[in-house]
Amino acid sequence: MTGQLPFPRHYARTQRFTLGTPRDFALAPDGTRVVFLRSRTGTDRSHQLWVLDLDGGREFAAADPQALLAGADEQLSPQERARRERSREGSAGIVGYAVDAAVELAAFALSGRLFVSELRAGTTRELPVAGPVVDPRPAPDGRHVAYVADGALRVVAADGDGTAGADRALAEPDGPDVTWGLAEFIAAEEMGRHRGFWWSPESDRVLAARVDDAPVTRWWIADPAHPDRAPAQVPYPVAGSANADVTLAFFGLDGSRTDVRWDTVRYPYLARVHWSAAGPPLLLVQTRDQRAQRYLKVDPQTGATTLVHEDQDEVWVEPYPGAPAWTPDGRLVRIADEGGARKLFVGDRPLTGQPLHVRAVLDIGEDDVLFSASGADVHDIGVYRAWFRGSGDQGGWERVGEQPHPTVSSAVRGGALTVLTQASLERPGTRSEVVRLDPDGGEKVLAVIGSHAETPGLTARPRLVLAGERRIPCAVLLPTGYAEGDGPLPVLLDPYGGPHGQRVVAAHNAYLTSQWFADQGFAVVVADGRGTPGRSPAWEKAVSRQLGPVALEDQVHALEALADSFPLDLGRVAIRGWSFGGYLAGMAALRRPDVFHAAVVGAPVTDLRLYDTHYQERYLGHPDEEPAVYASNSLVTDEGLSQAVEPHCPMLIVHGLADDNVVVAHSLRLSSALLAAGRPHEVLPLSGVTHMASQEQVAENLLLLQVDFLKRSLGLR
């Protein structure tokens, strides 16, 4: 039985116990059905499209990839592979879909082919179109489906019948490096914008992004394990270099075209696009240095843009999920930092204040906004609603969902229904409930959407504390069965520790690998220092121009503070991390070997000039203007290496050779620098692995190899 598997294999096979969990919800405005994705079991990687019929009280699969492909293996185009890598999608089958306004019709791509599902009937059929298909989306009225193929934005009638339903191009590339309707690399990787086209509310035209990658630096991602294969060419906007040129245009189904005009020289980053029946299209555009952003409304008839609002910040501005948007009466909804807090605004009026730290806008109703936020406890992420008119117009907010807190919650709302998904420390996995929110507050649970996720064979027991004078959020995990008097334990720091990555959260499954490492004989510490999200704007922005040093300082501060309350053996301390966490582990090994005695350095950014523009320039500035900042934060520059001190700290460097985000050159340069300095280290190259080590055998053995390395290096065997 799968439940009897060793944890590393079980964890890998279930994709961190996420398979079988319902996700990606859409709710019919008439309140009769909920649509979602879910695999059949907790080990099945192939997701199906499901419908929960609330009137009939039954679930049924509207689309099964295995049946639609007649058992054939799924084939992914390079564009689809890139989309999945940017969204960290490691599963298979139907991994995304879009619906019309009535949630009657769903469209999705499978093996580069276009399928549509009639959601009431639960039937699915293929539309014969040019392929390979990427990101198909029905018009709000459900009569047409737009999609991207070979860089062209195309449209086809949803019924596929007659001349009027003929598949045709609305916009075709006008150069070899041009695409229409797709998000460019940094929009998807760093801005959280994964879409490249948007239907009008009237279903008569499409607003589409034109991306020209010609100015972007070309990198080559090779597969050394297969020298007979040509390297893949990747446009990669490395820090300080040119970005893709991104513009917008409207395309009418009648063949018309209207270009959108804004100051793309001053505001080259297209961070957000919103188009709803509540108002004209909204754009959020940013300056290259990300210290200013503008909210622009667009005239669909002329393409002219008008300034609605502008944000400026001496450090950086931030785009947030779900914003900007319009209320039904035409007021701007946005999230912004004011008075030391991150607040929700409607027009110029803040709807929230301390202690809430707003994270995302989830939905906008007739008189309220549904949003997610952290509270006084940073690890507690809740769903809230705030009123901007009506009976709740006197201010304040209300939390949605079960008591007691804390939880990690999210929500999707459609019409009168909301799907509320919650995780907690008390139970593994997540629970998704269909609820009806009362107009003036409160909710009623109508149904629970079943999960097929498997239950882990271990129980995580994190103790959440605030460490030291800085009150750094931490989770401490001791071996199962550890009792007072058993003596001090070797310590493993297990952080991400950087921007956009909060690890200390009120969710049981977030600590499974940390608990497993603890059960191998370690006291595991997870610490979210300055730069991590969820606490305050000042906390996040404290890492400006000193990204690595501040993050490392807080890991050391937390470790030393926790030693007063927990059985930590400070003579045997290790650190492990991936991506930013790998960078942090590498810096810990080089600059603080007095504290750290072994480090697992996974997919690290080591030469900060080799990472992308939007991320790196936000935190460190432009490398040509502030070269000293890059040099001091990097691990492999002369200045960075000059801060490496004795004694030697053993390092295991791990990197996927197919990684197109943090390319393997980072680890190779680190290894070369260590070799030149006479510092022994180990390197584990992962053939065919990207920035996601999602292959089952790789994910399983990575855990086992790390434990072996850590025990050897700390003298535990």
Short summary:
The protein is α+β, with helices and mostly antiparallel strands and 717 residues long.
Could you explain how this protein is built, in words?
By secondary structure, the protein is an alpha+beta fold. It folds into three domains: 186-319, no CATH class; 322-453, Neuraminidase; 463-713, Rossmann fold, CATH 3.40.50.1820. The chain is 16% helix and 35% strand. The strands form ten sheets. The chain has an eight-stranded mixed sheet. Strands 1, 2, 3, 4 and 5 form a five-stranded mixed sheet that branches. Strands 14, 15, 16, 19 and 20 form a five-stranded antiparallel sheet that branches. Strand 15 and strand 16 form a beta hairpin.
Task: Show the helix and strand layout.
Layout: H1 7-13, E1 23-27, E2 33-39, E3 46-53, E4 58-63, H2 65-68, H3 78-86, E5 92-93, E6 98-99, E7 105-110, E8 113-118, E9 123-127, E10 134-138, E11 144-149, E12 152-157, E13 168-171, E14 178-180, H4 185-191, E15 197-199, E16 205-212, E17 218-221, E18 232-235, E19 245-252, E20 257-259, E21 269-276, E22 279-286, E23 292-298, E24 305-312, E25 325-326, E26 332-338, E27 341-346, E28 349-350, E29 357-364, E30 368-374, E31 381-387, E32 397-400, E33 408-414, E34 417-423, E35 431-437, E36 443-449, E37 463-467, E38 472-477, E39 489-493, H5 512-519, E40 523-527, H6 537-541, H7 547-562, E41 568-578, H8 580-591, E42 598-602, H9 613-620, H10 627-633, H11 638-642, E43 651-656, H12 665-676, E44 682-686, H13 696-713
Parallel strand pairs: 3-5, 39-40, 39-41, 41-42, 42-43, 43-44
Antiparallel strand pairs: 1-2, 2-3, 3-4, 6-7, 7-8, 8-9, 10-11, 11-12, 12-13, 14-16, 15-16, 16-19, 17-18, 19-20, 21-22, 22-23, 23-24, 25-26, 26-27, 27-28, 29-30, 30-31, 31-32, 33-34, 34-35, 35-36, 37-38, 38-40
Helix pairs in contact: 1-13, 7-8
